[in-house]
Amino acid sequence: MEHMTQHDALKRLAYIEGHLAGVRKMVEQDQYCVDVLKQTYAIRRAIEKLEAKLLSGHLQGCVVEGIEAGESDRVIDELVELYALANK
Amino acid sequence: MEHMTQHDALKRLAYIEGHLAGVRKMVEQDQYCVDVLKQTYAIRRAIEKLEAKLLSGHLQGCVVEGIEAGESDRVIDELVELYALANK
Amino acid sequence: MEHMTQHDALKRLAYIEGHLAGVRKMVEQDQYCVDVLKQTYAIRRAIEKLEAKLLSGHLQGCVVEGIEAGESDRVIDELVELYALANK
Amino acid sequence: MEHMTQHDALKRLAYIEGHLAGVRKMVEQDQYCVDVLKQTYAIRRAIEKLEAKLLSGHLQGCVVEGIEAGESDRVIDELVELYALANK
Question: Distance (Å, rounded) from C-alpha D86 to C-alpha C38?
């Protein structure tokens, strides 16, 4: 992982962890389901953005390097597997 | 929120928080992006399951009660808004 | 289905069918995969919008009527099943 | 597009077009929204499978060839853009 990607990912993860702690508090306080769901949707979107950043870093880094190093089979199989997992 | 839904949601949230802390550790240790992404996909699916449970509880509880109490406009508007947010 | 919802759905379906025929032509002419995929994503979003409209009509119509007629169990079970199918 | 991918894509498109025509008939006959929605979900899943096949063919073909030909910037930018569009 590139340093920039790693730094950005850690910042996003800290934000997501804080948001999730807020949702737990809402559930503990028995707040209205609709309000809780709005927050979990926001968390899900934050995770999707983190994934987009990680994938983008992976494509620009390891994928190009892997193919240039003659390991295109492994690299492409991983991408196809990731795509299937992402949409499961 | 019903007691069962609340209890189940708190258990799921604890699991998700633990999983997320594991992902943060992976990123801190600079592990392979593909492995990190597989974990974030699993977390996203766990959040989707939590959302399904919360929504199901909401439908069986507040939605039925709200419509029976003559507040169908508010209740249905909320559901339409939730659906739009969930798929944004 | 309400008349307005039905009319709107048929218009959307005609648009989607036309779009899909365009994609088939692109594939027959062996156009660049990336361009084909951009079109299938647009079609998928058009279907999602159609679904949102159908669901909204269903919530405002059959769901409210069903619950008011004392059939909340059936109506809510259907919604929970739909939600699970939509996110499968 | 490889011949196999193209042949497979055309078969899938024909299936999706037939399915969509069936949904239009259901809407014209004013069938129950819930049943219509179940069919549109199935169509959406069929489109997602088509996309997975197209993307897989693209990764194994054009992406590897592009990177080996020194065009990794263009190829990777396209993938990042596709990913963003797919999840919009």
Answer: 8
